[in-house]
Amino acid sequence: MPRFPADFLWGTATAAYQIEGAVDEDGRGRSTWDTFCAEPGRVRDGHTGEVACDHYHRYREDVAIMAELGLNAYRFSVSWPRVQPGGTGTPNAKGLDFYDRLVDELAAHGITPFLTLHHWDLPQELEDAGGWLVRDTAYRFADYAQLVHARLGDRVAHWTTLNEPFVQMAFGYALGVHAPGKALLMDALPAAHHLLLAHGLGTAALRAAGASRILLTNNHTPVRPASADPADIAAADAYDALHNRLFLDPVFEGRYPDLTAYGVSEVPGVADGDLGLISAPLDGFGVNYYNPTRIAAPEGPDAALPFTDAGITGVPRTGFDWPVVPEGLTDLLVDLNTRYDLPPVYITENGCSYPDPDPGPSDTGVPDPERIAYLDSHIRAVAAARAAGVDVRGYLVWSLLDNFEWAEGYHQRFGLVHVDFATGKRTPKASAHWYRDLVAAMR
Ligand code: PNW
Q: Which residue's CA is minimally distant from atom 3 of ligand 1?
């Protein structure tokens, strides 16, 4: 394994709804994910985040595990409805108290917190008022950012506004496979702009409050055309515009990409000044990477979208059937660094899931050789990008714990640490021990 600097950040990442549980405790409001989980047929086997990993009660044990693994960074998200139940107005002190205790516990173990303000669990009352399809939600987000910063800004340095606005728009509003379950196809585009505007307004609010390390986290995929056929190349370009450039060009260049392949001449709802807010300088950029995408021309002249997913063949696959292509991470980082003037980069998520049957703890521990191979190859891919000049400063495994994997419920396990969901018992997997040894060797 190539060497990383001694101050490189090594850690794990989680998100509030996926691990906390305690959905009705201490004045928490409802989120779109509570609603979505309660609708029959939305989440596999009717699983919900009601209990999840019970991290709300077991956070001390979870921080102790991170400390035992020698990790020096932890990315988590704040549940907006826990700290501001209806998404507006007076904060819920008990909700803020939880994050206060968590941040103190991390500090006591020398673990740098990376706080994400919004990882998809929008207060239901804001969704009822139009959610990310309406502009007002972006202003509500800026108020929320300010109130969380007022409580935690003295101890949290790294502030991430949003997690993966592409997935929130595409899965939540265009395809309807995530909360709030709307299948609007390209009519979901206002959600992209309002999410980006929330990022911009949130950044301005955090900056005014004195924050000095502000990030955005996107998930990106390097897009490969299925062949050298110009039709496939055009389709790949269209897909790249939607998945990658729609959330990059406004942030780093202050303009929207060309979306004419979608019959869209202009992103709707953009007001004077919006792009200036959205493109305000950032102090870091979070990249979530899982796999590349191979794109071909659409199947017929009447296809709903100007591309089709051609699939990647001949490589191993994770439990989600996602192809394992570590060099895609090097390609992605080098390409982003070439196309944009990036601030320091953090890999804010990377990892893999394995599905049922759950290997579970046995006398020999929890063996997960595929995850070790996945992490090893992807960390090498980060080293290769660094060697090519990309300023990557941290790597956070998705995820610390097996957790509520959205529409798949508890059927996909991403954790370095096994969770028995009947009892809450945590057991570090072989990959956790492997990661501990890797991190120790870099110090
Ligand atoms: C991310 N895709 O979601 C999220 O940030 C996590 O909350 C989630 O648990 C993790 O990845 C694993 O799914 C993604 O299809 C969902 O491109 C879908 C995609 C990418 C990321």
A: 167
Q: Is the CB of 405 under 6 A from ligand 1?
A: yes
| Band of pLDDT at residue 357, cut at 50, 70 and 90 | confident
Give which of 59, 84, 81, 204 is closest to 151, Cα–Cα: 84
In angstroms, what is the span from residue 290 Cα to ligand 1's centroid? 8
- Each residue of 179-226: pLDDT tens digit? 999 999 999 999 999 999 999 999 999 999 999 999 999 999 999 999
Predicted structure pTM score: 0.98
**Average of per-residue pLDDT across 401-422:** 98
Tell me the HSE value of 312 on the side-chain side, using a 13 A CA sphere.
19
* Percent of the chain predicted with pLDDT > 90: 97
Q: Give the model confidence (pLDDT) of 256-292 as tens digits.
A: 999 999 999 999 999 999 999 999 999 999 999 999 9
Residue 301: the pLDDT is 85
How far is 248 from 246, CA to CA, in rounded Å? 6
- Write down the pLDDT at residue 359: 85
Residue with tokens 């102090």: 283
CA distance 120 to 208: 25
368 and 361 Cβ atoms separated by less than 8 Å: no
> Does any ligand 1 atom lie closer than 6 A to the CB of residue 404?
no
399: preceding bond cis by omega (within 30 degrees): yes
Q: Domains plus CATH for the chain?
A: 9-441 (3.20.20.80)
ipTM surpasses cut 0.85: yes
Catalytic center residues: 164, 349
Contact 375, 318 (CB under 8 A): no
Q: What atom in ligand 1 is closest to the CA of residue 398?
A: 10
From the list 211, 76, 99, the residue with the least C-alpha distance to 154 is: 211
Q: Mean pLDDT over all residues of the chain?
A: 98
Calpha distance 74→334 (Å, rounded): 25
* 290 touches ligand 1 (CB under 6 Å): yes
Asked whether 71 and 9 are in contact (CB, 8 A), the reply is no
Query: What are the CB-based long-range contacts (under 8 Å, 24+) for 354-363?
Result: 354/318, 354/319, 354/412, 354/413, 355/319, 355/320, 355/411, 355/412, 355/413, 356/411, 358/413, 358/418, 360/418, 360/420, 361/418, 361/420, 361/427
Q: Is 164 in the pocket of ligand 1 (CB under 6 A)?
A: yes
DSSP letters along 1-66, please?
A: -----TT-EEEEE--HHHH---TTSTT---BHHHHHHHSTTSSGGG--SSSTT-HHHHHHHHHHHH
Ligand 1 mean position, distance from CA 320 (Å): 10
Look at the block and give the residue holding tokens 């609007």. Answer: 184
